[in-house]
């Protein structure tokens, strides 16, 4: 049985040197490719040697470590499920007592763990530090699993109080309720800023920014609804949905008109559609200026200013909650993608787009928490494929606009455009379906990784 202690710093090395204690040092880099209740698989580089370790938890627990090649180690690195840990490992003896000291580096810098090897439980209970080490500042962590290598890999330093950067990053062990409110507060401030700017300039691009931020805010609130009182979150979600609908129509017209500006002989049609768009613009302005919009934002603000956690329902550790939420959304996406085929209606494609958008919002805010290249690659592919779905959604909206306004002198022109847009939609659907399987493999890999975090 061993006992473990968290040290304030690595000054113990100076003490050992002054007392002429022989110390052996090695450099270790370690990562995990599997962490579950049954099996843990890790890879380790110790100086210039490489090892694979597999631990199984069963009626007869087993721990097997074998030496592997550098190439095997490199190949395994592509499958890692967490950040690597780097540490300097020291071993030494004092009066036949064997000690191990780990001084962590990189993102775990500041963590110093001293472990004492003890032969029996009785000896462990009666253990006293040698006089040389008696006055070292320390805290026992023998029973604290947070300081096991696998949990340090997954969640980082439980004692961390601040981030090492000023950007919007979150500590793995911090409270999910506070952190999600911090994100949505940031988005809310953007909405207020653009709202004031829009009322002054009446600029359609500013309106689009309001719309995007409201959508993002609603998605994040809905995905994190387990954190909040369901009564207030339901009210806010409904109100934000109304605000999104109010801005959607104007956006569809703006995008369609921009498309038509590149089409020859479209000036008469553009003039007619701009007349309708201006009416939509008037409706949006009226909504943003009146008390209805203020009521939407007021309810939202009450939640965001809840410093006493009156509306908090469940307590979650940040990284676990993010992993759980992201995986939940990925599973939903996998089901929708699996059903998607060349026989699917456009609305089925639009539902997939909405689900991809949700996942991208989570990636955008939390990808740095995981520090994995596999996440970055998946996020890039997810953003690219979302653009295809967005183009399909826009063109489908254009066809609906044409169906409503293809009358009189502009009928023939709009009918021709509808035919051309329909061909483009058919091509887009084909491109999406062609990339579907590769995308599913990417997100499936992320889903498997996320299971280790909760």
TrEMBL record:
<dbReference type="InterPro" id="IPR007899">
    <property type="entry name" value="CHAD_dom"/>
</dbReference>
<feature type="domain" description="CHAD">
    <location>
        <begin position="185"/>
        <end position="399"/>
    </location>
</feature>
<dbReference type="InterPro" id="IPR033469">
    <property type="entry name" value="CYTH-like_dom_sf"/>
</dbReference>
<dbReference type="Pfam" id="PF05235">
    <property type="entry name" value="CHAD"/>
</dbReference>
<dbReference type="InterPro" id="IPR038186">
    <property type="entry name" value="CHAD_dom_sf"/>
</dbReference>
<protein>
    <submittedName>
        <fullName>CHAD domain-containing protein</fullName>
    </submittedName>
</protein>
